Amino acid sequence: METGPVSELIKGALRLWNLDKNQIRALNFTPMAGNSKLHIAMFPWLAFGHMIPFLELAKLIAQKGHKISFISTPRNIDRLPKLHPSVSPLITFVKLSLPQVENLPKDAEATTDVPYDKVQYLKQAFDDLKEPLSKFLETCDDLDCILFDFAPYWLPDIATSLGIISVFFSIFTAAMLSYVKPASDVDDRSKPEDFTVPPKWVTFPTNVVFRIFEVLRIFDQTIAGNVVSDFYRAQEGVKGCDMIAVRSCMEFEPEWLQLLEEIHGKPVIPVGVLATTEYDTGVLEDKKMGYSIPRNEKNGYFTRDSVAESLRLVMEKEEGKIYRDKVKEMKPLFADKDRQDKLVTMSTQFLDFKLTQNEVFAAYEHNPPSMES
């Protein structure tokens, strides 16, 4: 498969990333103003909580004039929200039939279609998409890069063999993604309890940790189904990718974005906050922007009374004032469409290699958009 000039620029950029930061700064890159347009493939995990953030990013990128190939299964694509006419010509939905595996209900193509104990079979079927996905990518002579989710840990090898840049796109915050083991480190976490404290490579104080019921679900599923664990999938995906894109921004969690860059040794691109997800609770609570409803730590259940009391705390009580004030302070960050637009522009410029990751960060450090409402 031939690679285009944009891909060669990105590869050259990645070679430059091996320089230290002072050397990169000394290069003094200047953003170019060309009309290069990217062709980007997207391959999310088969859960609407993953597909929707991918689609939202696809629409934002398409608004910049870039071409998107959004890859999923037929029933999932048919259930996605309809596209606005302004972006529909640039987003092509690619339907790959989900292979049938034993114990997976017929027509089940997303996590919403199966009970929790059947998700393991959905992952087995998803892994069987490796060959049809590879065949599709082989036909895309103009493809510059592919954004992929945590699940297809085998995708970076395919992309490398075809000369396609692979980008691990995390719908999680940078804080949560920082719990994925760096390739250069030894992971001695073996018990569920090991994941309820910050790992050794997080060098600053934080309360962002997994709850025991969150970890137990992953461990129980892996042991019961003898399948590849989510932790392993994410570790291999991050290790094999060329760069990392994160649903975040420098103003929200700069310390975590910097840590990601340091521990994985590859470019990290913040693409904006997009919509929040259930995985944001830890970092939101750590930054006093959210309050976690008390739960049963073993199963994650909560009661009607605990919901009511939590609402009273954050809405009325004096001890909840810190949350109300912080949300008011940070509201412009999450509501500023111009800021989001600028982040997407910078992200696509980096993919086009008009900016280095160093310049993306420096631009926001030295000239951040106004946070005035």
Please tag this protein with its features.
Rossmann fold, 373 residues, alpha/beta, globular, single chain, 2 domains, 9% strand, 7 strands
Helix-and-strand structural type? alpha/beta
Gross CATH architecture of the largest domain? 3-Layer(aba) Sandwich
Radius of gyration: 21 Å
Shape label: globular
CATH class category label of the largest domain = Alpha Beta
What is the topology, as strand order, of the major beta sheet? 3-2-1-4-5-6-7
| Largest β sheet strand count, sense and barrel closure | 7 strands, parallel
> Beta-strand percentage?
5-15%
Ends apart, CA distance between termini = 49 Å
CATH superfamily of the largest domain: Glycogen Phosphorylase B
**How do the SSEs run, as a string of H and E?**
HHEHEHEHHEHEHHHEHEHHHHH
CATH topology label of the largest domain? Rossmann fold
Helical content, roughly?
40-55%
Number of domains: 2
Number of strands: 7
Mean pLDDT: 80
Transmembrane segments: 158-180
Keywords: Glycosyltransferase, Membrane, Transferase, Transmembrane, Transmembrane helix
GO molecular function: glycosyltransferase activity
Write up what this structure looks like.
This protein has 373 residues and is of the alpha/beta class. It has two domains: 306 residues, Rossmann fold; 45 residues, no CATH class. 44% of the residues lie in helices and 9% in strands. It is built from 16 helices and seven strands. Strands 3-2-1-4-5-6-7 form a seven-stranded parallel beta sheet, sandwiched between helices. Helix 6 packs parallel to helix 7. The longest helix has 15 residues. The N terminus and C terminus are likely disordered. One of its GO terms (molecular function) is glycosyltransferase activity. Keywords: Glycosyltransferase, Membrane, Transferase, Transmembrane, Transmembrane helix.
